Amino acid sequence: MFNSWKGGIPCKIFEKFLRPSTVHRQSHLTAKEEVRVLRVSSVSIKMSGQGRGRGRGRGRGRGGRFHPKKKNNSSSCGAAKPTTTQRKPVLSDHIYQIGTAKSSGDHTVVTQFIINHIRKTFKNGEDIGTALETRSDFDFTPSMPMLMRSTKDPTTESEEYMTQTRSFEILHEAEVQEFVKRKNMYQANKSKAYALIYGQCNKAMQSWIISRKDYETSIKGNPFLLLNAIDEHSTTYQENRSEYIVIFEALKGLINLKQKDDEVLEDYTRRFKTARDVAKAQMGGELKLPKVAKAME
Predict the structure, then answer these.
(1) Within 10 A of 127 (CB to CB), how many other CB atoms are there?
(2) How far is CA 174 from CA 47, 141, 170, 234, in A?
């Protein structure tokens, strides 16, 4: 059956691709109908890629090898640039070190970071933070609670007067308790601030501070005097050196002070003021240049 050639393809090949019902009905078909069925089957086989020639291997038929398209993740504007996340500065990055003439004033950045850290982490840290910035104890006098007086007339409105007075007394007692707690917390934060600031000094800085003559009598336990001592040692101040060399290096650090490439103006201004105050303290007063002052008049 189907021994003839149609279109150069043996008809027996098509026999196994035809459905059984179609093969069974071939005996009832005429010769023209059989040819028509073979042509339709030949076209379907070529399109499915099962036949010879282009349908196999790397042919262009659908039965050929599938080559998936590569996805292009780049946008129309070009490849996306990798985003770099900047690491957040932490307390361990801010350490006090013995300064040089070039690094004069760098410790002010460390001091400001520590003060901001104290404000955020300490309970009622705003009070001790303000005190550290001014280098003096916080003034609690404006915050001291005052007992309010009744506005009622005790002779004509005795009952209202007694009620209002008692209310004011209760309120005053509560405010006094909160005020005492605030002052006690300030004293506790003062000791914690000293320990934190001293712990942020490297070994060399701690050795210089402990070896000072006024450490046991004044600096120990006082965070304000500790910051002043750190300012001095961060600008190459040494107690046993010649006072003229100390003055020269303080002036040299002030004159050669420059803004860094990655430094904001606020930090640079703070470093400049610190270097100015240190130079003024070492000289014992204002730097006076009469000739220059006279020329500027």
Answers:
(1) 21
(2) 94, 17, 6, 46
Q: Say whether 276 sits in a helix, a strand or coil.
A: helix
Confidence band for 74, pLDDT divided at 50, 70 and 90: very low
- Give the chain's domain count: 2
pLDDT in tens, 140-177: 999 889 888 888 877 778 888 888 888 989 999 999 99
Are residues 103 and 41 part of one domain?
A: no
Neighbours of 117 (CB within 10 A): 17
pLDDT given for residue 78 in this prediction: 47
Do residues 236 and 251 touch, judged by C-beta distance below 8 A?
no
Q: Find the domain containing 37 and state its range.
A: 5-55
Q: Determine the Cα–Cα distance for residues 187 and 137; give it in Å rounded to an integer.
A: 10
Q: Are residues 261 and 202 in the same domain?
A: yes
Residue 76 lies in a domain: no
Report whether pLDDT(40) > 80.
no
Give the side-chain half-sphere CA count within 13 A for 258. 5
The CA-atom distances, in angstroms, between 175 and each of 126, 179, 220, 277 are 19, 6, 33, 40
CA 131 to chain centroid, in Å, comes to 26
Among residues 201, 108, 183, 95, the alpha carbon closest in space to that of 144 is found at: 183
* Inside any domain, residue 127: yes
Please list, residue by residue across 63-72, b when 16 or more beta carbons sit within 10 angstroms of its beta carbon and e when fewer do: beeeeeeeee
How far apart (Å, rounded) are the C-alpha atoms in residues 297 and 290? 11
Question: Structure tokens of 71?
Answer: 């996805």
Same domain, 34 and 107: no
Mean pLDDT of 104-131: 88
